Amino acid sequence: MISVNVKGMAEMQSTLRNLAKEQLPYAMATAINATAFKVRGALQSEMKSVFQNPTPWIQKSVRYEKATKENLTAKVYHHEEGAKSIISEVRGGQREVKPYERLMRSAGILPAGRLVVPGAACRLDRYGSIDKDVLAAILKSLGLLSAKMQQGRKVTKKRVKALNQSGTYFVGGQGLARHLAPGIWQRVGGRPRPILLFVTRSVYSKRYQFDVVGEREVRKVFANEMARAVQKAIDTAR
């Protein structure tokens, strides 16, 4: 017969009870939060992979809410404005109408069912989007640039120069300019240049696999994060 005698059983049982009651929920919350942080990083890396030079703003739009001992759930999400910008890339289909497009549409300049894309002569920013100063100058030329839109905007030499050129923009595809493609054109040296074009709605494919990437990262890291957190809890309880 083999006898097994474990010394300190009472102390061990007390430690385990304390671990289950106090330390384990904390360990679980710690593991969940560490996982959520890594999911956020994986999503930011995915955006760099599927989008061409994504802006820091859209990358920082990925947020996460931490779990607690009382609520063992963390959330990873895009803030509201960020979600609007990329929702068509997640679900596929037509992209959201942008604020300046709504302005142009309400003024009767942008036809229903059309969206705005940069023309061949449009100045773009380093992220491939329409330069904000050029857009401001165009809206000014159309009488759509409100004081509220300019509030808080730093007045740079570049913006002043752009706004001073607002009188050179006109709408193509109508009136005397009906021979030009629908859009916003700029007359430079007597010749028209296409700045913005009004095109039929574009349909986007599902490029940004938000759910797939998030779930894959959870499966990849959670077990290790949980083991690390539990070990730390055990060490702390001693």
Report on the structure:
There is one protein chain. With 238 residues, the chain is an alpha+beta fold. The protein has 8 helices and 8 strands, in the order H-H-E-E-H-E-H-E-H-H-H-E-E-E-E-H. The strands form 3 sheets. The protein has a 4-stranded antiparallel β-sheet. It has a two-stranded antiparallel ribbon with strand order 1-2. Strands 3-8 form a two-stranded antiparallel ribbon.
Main sheet: strands, sense, barrel: 4 strands, antiparallel
Radius of gyration: 28 Å
Low-confidence stretches: 1-9
| Structural class based on helices, strands and sheet pairing | alpha+beta
SSE string = HHEEHEHEHHHEEEEH
Q: Looking across the biggest beta sheet, what order are the strands in? A: 4-7-6-5
Q: Percent helix among the residues?
A: 40-55%
Number of DSSP-assigned strands:
8
* Chain-averaged pLDDT: 82
Helix and strand arrangement:
Blueprint: H1 9-50, H2 56-60, E1 62-65, E2 75-78, H3 80-91, E3 93-94, H4 99-106, E4 114-118, H5 132-141, H6 147-150, H7 157-164, E5 169-172, E6 183-188, E7 191-200, E8 203-204, H8 210-237
Antiparallel strand pairs: 1-2, 3-8, 4-7, 5-6, 6-7
Helix pairs in contact: 1-8, 5-7
In short:
The chain has 238 residues and is of the alpha+beta class. The chain is built from 8 helices and 8 strands, in the order H-H-E-E-H-E-H-E-H-H-H-E-E-E-E-H.
Give a quick set of tags describing it:
single chain, 238 residues, alpha+beta, 4-stranded antiparallel sheet, two-stranded antiparallel ribbon, 8 helices, 8 strands, 49% helix, disordered N terminus
